[in-house]
Amino acid sequence: PEKTVETLIKRYREVTTAIMEIPEISGFCYTQLTDVYQEVNGLLDMNHVPKVDVNKIKEINALRN
Hints:
mainly alpha
């Protein structure tokens, strides 16, 4: 898990940008949206509260459009 909001956004941007740069890929699915007991890699915590500003995630996801 990332230790700060900034590092979470940075890592999400890096991974998303890398996927978007592959011309053969037209979409992707973030499979762990929320944290669960044994894993804490979600964009939302266990109570479904966003860990980061959802507008930042929206901006990153819209980079390719």
